[in-house]
Design brief:
Number of domains: 1
Helix content: under 10%
CATH class: Mainly Beta
Strand order of the largest sheet: 2-4-5-6-7-8-9-11-12-13-14-15-16-17-18-19
Number of helices: 3
Mean pLDDT: 87
Largest sheet: 16 strands, antiparallel, barrel
CATH topology: Porin
Structural class: mainly beta
Shape: globular
CATH superfamily: Porin
Number of strands: 19
Low-confidence stretches: 1-7, 104-119, 168-173
Length: about 400
């Protein structure tokens, strides 16, 4: 029977950092194999907020009082169940995963794709697949989106904290942190979808699909359910002369229709991305860039327009280097995400006023991390994060975060 290899953030993170990515339990019953696995993590986070800084709309850096917490990192805890089989010359599988968090009282995220019920339990995956290595795989259900997936799967802060600790940004971090979401890439999110992934042919593969459209998180008056969204990417993997390379390019598009004459004008949002990951012995380098029109920043369709149907452009990216020395992996990373105004009138609005916070123009984060493999399943982490948010109009805020903790895969 062919083995089904599911791609989740937890398994990808374990694989990237040398932790044990195998499932804790594999049960065989006739033609079916049931695999159970997941992760548990927790971090002490201490944030030094900029007492002279200004609260910035959509900014990642905190201002005012400093904070302290014990919380999950970028990943919530997870338990995942996958049933797989070979039937009628097809590999078939079904996956359901539950993602509980340490802090069950934090404000739930309000994005359509990534929202929780407020209980701290998030059901991110529920999908089935069928296919064959000769022609590819079809996926139906809810899973990680295509656009931005390679960026987050290559992010070293999957095993740690990154930006947005102790509550995230405006409720968009929820009970987990943001990693490098919003300071280097847009969140891929967990979205209902029907997608096709081709077989790997000499290192080249493509994926594309139809997705449930997501809500506009900034402007009312749009009907996101009228038309689907579309995402896709192409990847190329090559190993030559001791160098391994993973290259990718992807796109996203979704149309926003209006609900009536008094609503803002409709528009089509779009984005593209390019990235690469290169490994030489124990050294690994990641580079990534995205550009978007009407998609916004941090979370998809957050701040993507001016409220009148005029699109705001955004872009960003990150560079990351890691080096492994025995059981220790050291990492340095820098990234930023930019949000531009739609026009002159929008620029004045984004500058803020005495009663309205200025809107972010740039979020940046510099991150230094150390990962120690205590066992093949447990990784201990120490991390320092410097986050800065600059607003239209000149306001800014800075945040220094120290995080200590660990993650266990089973």
């Amino acid at each position: 029977m062919a083995q089904f290899k599911k791609l989740t953030l937890a398994v990808a993170a374990a694989t990237l950092f040398g932790a044990n990515a195998a499932h804790a339990v594999d049960l065989q019953a006739g033609d079916w194999k049931l695999s159970i696995g997941g992760n548990v993590n927790g971090f002490l986070t201490s944030d030094s907020c900029d007492s002279k800084g200004t609260a910035i709309n959509l900014g990642l850096a905190c201002s005012g009082s400093s904070t302290f917490g014990i919380q999950n990192g970028l990943l919530p805890n997870e338990i995942s169940f996958t049933a797989s089989s070979r039937q009628d010359d097809l590999d078939v599988s079904a996956t359901i995963s539950l993602w509980p968090t340490i802090d069950t009282t934090s404000a739930a995220q309000t994005g359509t794709g990534s929202g929780t019920s407020g209980s701290g339990l998030n059901s991110r995956q529920g999908f089935f697949t069928f296919g064959d290595k000769s022609w590819g795989t079809v996926k139906i259900g809810r899973d990680l989106g295509i656009f931005g997936s390679d960026a987050i799967l290559s992010d070293m802060t999957l095993l740690s904290v990154g930006a947005g600790s102790n509550g995230g940004v405006g409720g968009y971090g929820g009970p987990t942190t943001l990693g490098r979401i919003g300071s280097g890439y847009l969140y891929a999110d967990w979205i209902p979808q029907i997608t096709y992934s081709s077989p790997n042919i000499n290192g080249f593969a493509v994926s594309a699909g139809v997705f449930q459209s997501l809500a506009n998180l900034t402007t009312a008056g749009y009907t996101p359910l009228k038309q689907p969204g579309f995402q896709g990417k192409a990847t190329y993997d090559i190993a030559m002369s001791g160098v391994t390379s993973h290259l990718w390019a992807g796109f996203l598009t979704q149309k926003f229709d209006t609900t009536g004459a008094a609503s803002p004008a409709g528009y089509t949002a779009s984005a593209y991305e390019v990235g690469g990951k290169f490994g030489i012995s124990d050294f690994e380098l990641v580079g990534y860039y995205y550009s978007a029109d009407g998609v916004g920043t941090t979370v998809q369709f957050l701040g993507g327009d001016d409220g009148q149907g005029n699109k705001r452009k955004s872009d960003g990216g990150y560079v990351q280097g890691t080096y492994k020395i025995g059981k220790v992996k050291l990492g340095l990373s820098y990234g930023q995400s930019n949000l531009k105004s739609a026009n002159a009138a929008d620029e004045l609005a984004m500058d803020g006023s005495p009663t309205t916070a200025a809107t972010v123009s740039k979020n940046t984060a510099s991150i230094a991390s150390a990962y120690y493999s205590l066992t093949k399943s447990i990784t201990l982490v120490a991390e320092y994060i410097n986050t800065k948010s600059d607003a239209h109009g000149g306001a800014s805020a800075k945040q220094d975060t120290v995080a200590l903790g660990g993650i266990m895969f089973f």
